[in-house]
Amino acid sequence: MTDNRHVDDVTGVETTGHEWDGIRELNMPLPRWWVWTFYVCIVWAIGYWIAMPSWPLVSDYTRGLLGYSQRATVAAEIAAAKSAQAQYLDRIAANDLSTIRDTPALLEFALAGGRSAFAVNCVQCHGSGGAGAPGFPNLNDDAWLWGGSLDAIHTTLRHGIRASDPETRINQMPAFVRDGLITRTQANDAVEYVLKISGQDADAVAAGRGKAVFSAQCASCHGADARGQHDLGAPNLTDAIWLYGGDRHALQQTLIAGRGGVMPAWQGILDPRTLKMLAVYVHSLGGGE
Amino acid sequence: METAAPMTDAPMTDVAGPVDTVDVRAVNKRENRTLYKKREKIHPRKARGAFRKFKWFVMAVTLTIYYVTPWLRWDRGANAPDQAVLVDLPGRRFYFFFIELWPQEVYYITGLLILAAMALFLTATTVGRAWCGYSCPQTVWTDLFIAVERLIEGDRNARIRLDKAPMSAGKIAKRTVKHAIWLAIGVLTGGAWVFYFADAPTLLGQLVEFDAPFAAWLWIGILTAFTYVFGGFMREQVCTYMCPWPRIQAALGDEETLIVNYDRARGEPRGAYRRGASWEGRGDCIDCNQCVAVCPMGIDIRDGLQLECISCALCIDACNDVMDKIGRPRNLISYGSIAAADARARGETPKFRWIRGRTIIYSAMMLLVGAVMLYALLTRESLGLSVLHDRNPLYTPLSDGSVRNGYTLKISNKTHDGRNFVLTLDGPAGATAMRVGGDTAGAAPHFPVGPDQIASFRVFVTVPAGALTDESAALTMILSDPGSGTRAVEETSFRGPAK
Question: Residue A29: which of B37, B400, B404 has the nearest Cβ?
Fold first, then answer.
């Protein structure tokens, strides 16, 4: 080592012996307390290895004397969170939907729980904001096929639509033309009529003919005034909301081939408390009746 | 490494009067440094003079401000604390006399820090390390701890004797008293600190009854320990090894900056002085080492400007004392700039230039930042509104052909009274607003917000069919307090289907 000793000519101080482009670093003293702090850190580290999980082994790792485990901590925290939620979940289970909606603490809990359940189970069809897509209803608007009250939404959630559940909501928009119930010409006339009553541009003469077709074929479900019926899940044909599109082409498609989407029955898949929270959440999106 | 030989006793200076030569060496002299150096204890002797008096004064002022401030009261009405200076961490508020800041207004703190930095730069470039020498907490508390030490154990020589003396009842008693007082100062310091974060009288009551929150005990403990260790033991080591400021300030000074300066031209060659001897052919420095003895940093100012020098000027006091006694002019060691020293060496009268590029720039920046902060404070609104447009769905078509948009409104009521705000809209024709879970449709929606609170509301805005001419329309939300007329206006947009 003595070979490396080099004393700076200007200051008379020993250098570290390292040289960068002719510049040498002066070997300046460290204070004693600093060095001791460094040693204490080393001792601390050794103690840490012994006390805490530290060294990886081939198939395991050293567990440490204190037996600390992050996984166990997480499990304990999850259990604590679950027990903290339990009192709310019990109250959700015990109260009816309107009570939950009118109790701020329960409403807040139900909205949060409903939001997360929605994000896991519902967004695939209805979209993350519940805005739907053609064929999948927008849950934010004020038009409901089967009713938008808390109870109606809850029933739809539990039993689904055209699902395997015995109490499922079921109806049928027939494939009128394909099945030969009406002719293509009659269907086109009925479409003009629907365009007219929903405030769109229509052929007035054809619409006049279509009114008769509508009364004979459609009014039984959609109503004589075409405003639909929640009990039958029949949509209002006079408003601006169309599940499958309200233009001429889409309406012709509907009359030719029929329509009928499926919403699963969630009873049995999700627990009753989650279904209640989901109903409250969907009801809160803006269209609840 | 070579171990520095202790400086041999300075030759006795035989002069009339009570100037005694001190057997002292500058422990922080560069030649004395070794690798992994043990701290050598410095026993500063008490200095007497103008700068010592000034240091006492600054110590009294700064410590009084620190210890007394949390106890000042300031009436803010029923819904706010009456402590003049309070950092309310749980409530997320900062109270400073007439100012109350919310967390989102942290830029005021930023402005304050910029102002403080500029003030430090300005001082550093004009009067040098005045901050280090007089008002830095490390300096103030170290000075206080040394004063306590001097009171209990005596001045420099007595302390050195006591250090060397074998353990005895008297020594133990003195040491116990000294450390007890040091710890008491530490506890007071930590105590004063926590009082800034809670109502001081309440917290004091809790502390006395051992009922205070754990955080209070923890912080009192931490600050007690740091005050005790930093003021009692670390002292100059903090400045020399821990603090970045000695390094930074070197970049801020120039040849006009005041430093504590030994007048080498006048002082050298130094040497012992025999009474009645001629001053011809020798310097005024009689090598009595008084300047080294009083130095709390353990340096010899006659070695020139050094990183360790905190410019406390105690050496000036000590040297002036000596010069008076031996009948030579004062200010052999004095505050002066390098430029002034050069001027004197050339035989000119030094002139101190206060107005320089640096001082102008720093002063201008302080004025600018101060003016901006003052303006922001004076025009600070008592009502805050932020509007977040729903992103999903962007809009909802309704059955009657109208279009609805959802918004989240966050309203901050920065007064100490509850207020009921009213929302009006300026946007597409026929637009109406409705508070979700609140008012019935039709009437202008109301938003009650409690005193000193932020509340969040959902609002639906509906625009009738045909009123939208484009995919997006500008919408202005105007929130007002009918009582005071305070308004907050927020621009947002209203979205509809593609046209």
Answer: B37
- Assess if residue B302 is contained within a domain: yes
- Residue A236 token pair: 């209002």
Tell me if B60 sits within 8 A of B182, measured CB to CB. no
Stretch B321-331: mean pLDDT, rounded?
A: 90
Interface contacts (A, B; CB < 8 Å) = 76
Structural domain for B344, as ranges: 1-39+254-349
Contact (CB, 8 A) for B486 and B480: yes
**B96 and B230: one domain?**
yes
Residues of A within 8 A of B1 (CB-CB) are: 14
pTM beyond 0.80: the answer is no
Indicate if the pLDDT at residue B461 is higher than 90: yes
**pLDDT less than 50: residues of chain A:** 1-2
B21 plus B75 within the same structural domain: no
Instruction: Please check whether residues B125 and B137 belong to one and the same domain.
Output: yes
Whole domain around residue A86: which residue ranges?
Answer: 81-167+277-284
B362 belongs to a structural domain: no
Q: Per-residue pLDDT for B3 more than 50?
A: no
Over residues B299-322, the pLDDT tens digits come to 999 988 888 899 999 999 999 999
Measured in angstroms, the CA of B342 and the nearest CA of chain A are apart by: 24
Q: Let me know whether B323 and B222 are in one domain.
A: no
- For B160-207, what is each residue's pLDDT tens digit? 999 898 888 989 999 999 999 999 999 999 888 999 999 999 999 999
Q: What pLDDT sits at residue A192?
A: 95
User: Looking at the 3D structure of chain B, how many domains does it have?
Assistant: 3
**Residues of B numbered 242-261 whose beta carbons fall under 8 angstroms of chain A's beta carbons: which are they?**
none
Identify whether the C-beta of residue B284 lies closer than 8 Å to the C-beta of residue B297: no
A200 reaches B (C-beta below 8 A): no
Partners of B234 on chain A (C-beta within 8 Å) are 33
Q: What is the ipTM of this complex?
A: 0.76
B408 and B294 belong to one structural domain: no
Q: Is 60 exceeded by the pLDDT of residue B10?
A: no
Name every chain B residue with its beta carbon within 8 A of the beta carbon of A284.
Answer: 436
Q: What is the pLDDT of residue B7?
A: 41
State the DSSP H helix or E strand holding residue A273, giving kind and residue range, or none if neither: helix A272-284
Instruction: Please indicate, yes or no, whether residues B120 and B50 belong to a single structural domain of this protein.
Output: yes
Instruction: Please check whether residue B2 touches A, CB under 8 A.
Output: no
Nearest to B399 among A30, A128, A236 (CB): A236
Condensed to tens digits (0 to 9), the pLDDT of residues A145-192 reads 999 999 999 999 999 999 999 999 999 999 999 999 999 999 999 999
Angstrom distance (rounded) from CA A167 to CA A163: 9
